[in-house]
Each structure stands twice: as structure tokens, then as C-alpha cells.
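In the previous chapter we treated chains in isolation. Here, by contrast, the input contains three separate entities that must be folded as one system, with a combined length of 595 residues.
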Amino acid sequence: MRLLSYALALTALTVPPLSAQRPITVAGVRSLSFGAVLPGVPTVVPRTSAANAGQFDVTGPHDSQAALTFTLPVVMTGPAGATLPLLFGGSDAGYSQSQSIGSQIGFDPKQPFVITFSQNGRGSVFLGGTAQPVPTQRAGSYTATITLTVVSLP
Amino acid sequence: MYNASKLAFAALALVLTGVISAQGQVNGSILATAQVQTPITVSGTQNLSFGNVFPGVAKAVAYTDAANAGKFSVAGQASTPVTYSFTLPTNLTSGGNNLPIGSWLGYENTSNSTSGGSGITPSAAPTSSTLSGSGALFFFVGATVTPPANQAAGSYTGTVTLTVSY
Amino acid sequence: MRRALRFIPILLCATRLGAQGVVIAPHALFIDGRARSGSVLLYNPNTEPVEVSISLLFGYPVTDSLGRIVLRTIDHPDSTMRSAAGWIQAFPRRLTVPPLERQTIRLLASPPPGLPAGEYWARLVIAARGGQAPVTGVTDTAAVKVGLTLEVRTIIGVYYRQGAVRTGVAMSNLRTALAGDSLVVRSRLVQQGNAAYIGTVQGVLTDPTGATRGEFKAPIGVYYTMEPRYAMRIGALTPGRYWLKVKLTTEREDLGPEVLLPSAVARDSVEVGIP
């Protein structure tokens, strides 16, 4: 028992102080908004669109790395269960250490992407995409949920 | 013993906290949103063209003339009633010169064809119609130009306007 | 022969004029009295720029003596009419939409103070024309060449909603008449409440066993009073007694549910004798 206590105490000593471990957080800031969409006419929202691109803010230990993984819907859902196809291209996501939409590093939102937190431990992830309504798309409001998972890497 | 156990539990909790902090996983979500709006499109798809005409010789273009008749198309919600009317010139102009045009004839159809629909009088008052089950409607117009024998040379133009009201 | 061949490409050009028109959405614009603004999206699907001009007028659909739906326009509506045409403005009123691009028309409302609750109407007129079409012809023989450009004007409804709005419709005098292979249906519809009745009319003809022998369905807007005519193809029916059931609902597939005012379903039915 005494050995176990010693072992646990020793283990505890190897863990960095809590004050040095800024917790990782991710917060959805802005929806990816396609606005008014016409049936049969694809609508593209660039990740650099300040008004329409989706945005997440992330925090983590400064200079540490984290992996970003999106869970992307393939459709938005609308009235009476109608669906509207969504498409994400290979550079529709972007990461900004400075949290500036004008200064992003593009990446493929369908693949995990490793980021390095800045000195202040903050960053922003931006997301664009394409809505592809069919010519017979039913009128109404369509929504879907986009989830960003941030895994802190040691 | 009791105190030792509490210490061990506290240390274990500390380890777990460290793991969460260093290798944690968190999620955040946003919405993707879109507002689909049903559109209407009214298009002039082919100008009414007479090509060359000769002074003193009237020339007609029938609405059935696939190459030269004026054509309009309407696309919208299926089975929607609409009101339509034409604004037609009585003269075409070239500089300060006029060239008379008249005898307008037309055709409306729910398919892009001059058969299976019905003849219309483009100069008539606003008329009602209904888009097809697929939301389509087509109009075809023809007319006759009557250049007098002393018609001045030039390129004569005018505008045919189709008004469609939802 | 050589001369004729030289003319062929020129004549073919006459058939290759690009379409002139824009996609307009929505086809009915609802403006909330709290926001006092709305927008219409224009999209040019063509390869040539389209010149667009915007204006407003007052009008609403009515039916003529034959039951056909026509737009009644009123140049100078008096104060008893639900006109919003005088105090809604569109910006811009002239614009050019480049090929494959979108432009937004914004509508701003400045209603008079103390405007009673209810819905007020205007019609937005969107006139579109492409660039001047070339006048085609054989340049070396003809002294006079003639060609006409097409212009299109699309008129859509604008509905300004002030305060609490409600709608409904009363149906009466449902009647039928045989016309060839079709059954013509008419009824009197009177709008209720302080907003237009925007919905769908459906009719079903059933035989004595309850089987459907004909039906029709169409969008409808009732602003005051109208008696629309609908024809359903019924073909050759066995002589006998049939039932026609007609109902109006505030359901529309072309409009989002957020802009549709709910109302109780209006129903009526009538016996139809097939000789």
C-alpha cells in the first residue's frame, strides 16, 4: 500500500502544473450561411467570406499542437424532410493563428488537420462550402449541423 | 490507511486531469443554413427577325417560323396562374425613319412547340394562362412589316415586350 | 451557288441569340412591418449582360367574367385600398446584371404613421432586356434590314405586414358544368381577415363507390372576391351521380411556411350529374 502511495505521488509530480495547461476549447461562432439559394443554381461560400463563412474559435496550450476533425453533413434538411445537398472542397477550411479571416492556411475539411496554437493559445477555424440545390428544390429553410472536434496532441 | 487512500485518489484524479488537458478532445458545432426561394424566370429566347426587306414589298414572319419568330419562355412554380400581355411597336425605327409593323399573331403553349397549344392575339388585353405541371410556358410571336416603296435604307429596330404577372 | 453558300452562316446567326431575362426569387416578397425591408435576388443565367429596371405599382389578382385570373392594376389607389406602392421603394432601380452573377434589389418601406394592422400590397415590376440584338441580313444586297429585340417584364407580389395579420376564405356557390371531356368548376371566394389568402385549391371528383375520377390542384391568392374557373379532365364517365369536393388550404410548396398565414381549411362539395 505504501508503495502504491509513493507511486501515485511520483506520478503526480510528473504532471505539469495546472496553471501551465490552458484547456483546449472550441466554440462555434458563426454559422455557414448560404443565404438565399435558387433551385438548380449552386451557391458557393468561400472560407474568406466575412459575412457567410462558418467560424469556430479554438484555444489550447500555447505552442502545442492539436488535430482538427470536421464532422460534415452531406445534406441540409428542410421543410417536410426535403434535403439540399452540400459539398465541401479540398480547400474549403482554413486556420488562422491570428484569428483573422484574411490570414488563413487552407486545408481539406474532410481530412484531419494539425494546427499549432499561437503564443496566446488562440486561433480560428473558418469553413466555406457549396450548396447544390436541385432544379426542383422545395422552397423553405434548410439547416444542418457541422461539428469540429479538436484533439490536443501531446 | 484512510488518508493514504484519499491521497492516492487525489493523485489519480490529478493524472486524469493532466491527460485531459494534454490529450483532450472537445467538440464545437455550428449550423449550415440556406433559404431556398422559388424563382420565376421570364426570358426572351429568340428575337423576331425579318432579315432583309425590300421597299414596297411586305414581309411576314409567322410565329411558326422556327428560325425567325420571336420566342419567350416562362419558368416558375407548377400550375401557377399568370397574366400576360404584350407591348408591341407599330413602327420600327432607324434614325428618324419609321417602318410600319403590324398584323401580330402569336401562340402559347406549355411545351416549346407551335403545336398542341393555342393561338393568341398579342395585341389583346392582358390574358390569363397557367404554367404547366412542370412550371413552363412558351410564347411565339410573328408579324408583318410593310415598307413603302420609298422606304429609306437602314437597319430598323424595335422592341417587343412580354409582361408576365404572378 | 458560291454566293448562296456564303449567306448560310449569316442567316444561322439569327437563331443563335442568347436568352434575355433574369431569374427572380422569391416570386412573392413578404415584408415584416418590424423590419420594414426585404430583398429580391436577381440571377443572370445567360452569357450576356442583362439591363434591369425596377418599379412598383398597385394591383391584385381578380377574375374576369369567364373565371380567368387577371391582374387588376390601379394607377391611383385611394386611401381605402391596401396599397403599399406609394411608400415602398426599391434600390437600385436600374442596374446591369453581368453574366452568371447575382444582384440584390432591396425594398425599403416607409409606411405612414398610424398605419392600421393588416397586410398592404404592391407589385414589383422587373423589366429585363439584353443588349441590342444585331440586325441580321445580307449586307451586300439589302437596303433595308429589320429586327426586333425582346424585352420581358415580370411582376411579382409584395406583401407588407403591419402588426397582427390574419386571413381566411369563405367559399360559396360551388357549381360545375361539363365542357367536352372536362368538368368546369367555379365557386365564389371571399377573403376574410386583414391579409390576402395565399394557399392552394384542390378539387376531387368521386364516383358512387368513392373512387377518384378526376382532380385538380392549383395555387391561389384571394385578395378581395373572385370566382376562378378550373377545368379537370374527366374523360368519358358512366352516367350517374358523382360528388365534387373542393377545399382550400394555406399550404404552398413554393413558399416557406414562415410566410404563410395559417387558416382553417375551407371546404365545400356538390353533387354532379353525368348524363
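Chain B is about 15% helix and 50% strand. Chain B has one domain: 41-165. Compare these points with the single-chain example from earlier in the chapter.
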